User: Fold this.
Amino acid sequence: MFMINVAVHGIGTIGKRIAHAVKLQKDMKLKAIVGYSPDATIKTVLEPYGPLYGTDLYATNEESLKKFKEAKMIVNGTLEDLLKKGEIDVLIDATPEGCGREYKEKVYSKYDVKVIFQGGEEADVAEMTFNAVVNYEKAFGKKFVRVPSCNTTGLIRTLSALDKFGLAYVFVAVVRRAADPHEHKKGPINAIEFEEVPSHHGEDVRTVLENLNIFTMAVKVPTTLAHTHIVEATLVKRASKEEIIEAFEEQTRVILLDMKEYPATSKIIEKFRDYCRPRNDMYEIVVLRDSISVEGSKVRWMQVVHQEADVIPENIDAIRAITGIEKDKWKSIKMTNESLGILK
Assistant:
């Protein structure tokens, strides 16, 4: 079997998860990870009991290389040293927000390597924004592709499930978590933080669902576990509550739970801890079944997004799509889902 050689640049919340997921694929090989500094995360994942143990380490640049050597870590050279070898088919850019564009202009564009950016970058950093169900085939032959943010990915999954009824208008209130669990310098701690209206999420959803009439608002609240969306969609073709539930049930990477059993995000995350998922990652979007209401042409529901995990399977499918190694999106989705233990 032909193996796709993958490198991951940036080993933070998303990068370390993508790197681990790549290692679980039968048609991919994690050739290297690229880090900026010898922090606790990169040291841990490379330790003998770490998930990336044995993976070649490279430094972002000469300054980073010096830092790794001073920390007495085994480092094989710089990012450019890695790319000059010509062995990497796909590079995942999981660097901090806004850095990807700079690396594209100064480094990536000089080499024959395909690059997948994350949602922290503006959409025009890439030739397209990717979703495995909606536009997998559009990535064929592209050099630069972007996987959108966790919130955008969550909305695309559920809204595209209802596309068969026609979406005349969508309003979303996004209740954002303040920080990821490990982030000790972010907040708010005792406040609700308001975001500019409209929030950027609607515009980002339209990079995939291009003709969707959507308006989004967002606030940030003092929790670290997950985002919550409160959605109202106006349908072109009316549907019953049962038909809406069936549409969500048929959509891959969307599951339904009941508020009676799962009355808070903490209970939902605990479910995935009990599954013994790595890092309690919830790749699926949870739609709260008993929050779904239908009133005429309007459908309302709440959904929960695990900000650390839902984009991981999209990145894996994007690797297959951008290289063209698998032309059938459903085969790719099936392989990815099975490798990560995704429920459906």
User: Anything to note?
Assistant: The chain has two domains: 4-147+311-340, 150-305. The CA atoms of residues 59 and 78 lie 5 Å apart. The two ends are 26 Å apart (CA to CA). DSSP finds twelve helices and 15 strands in the chain.
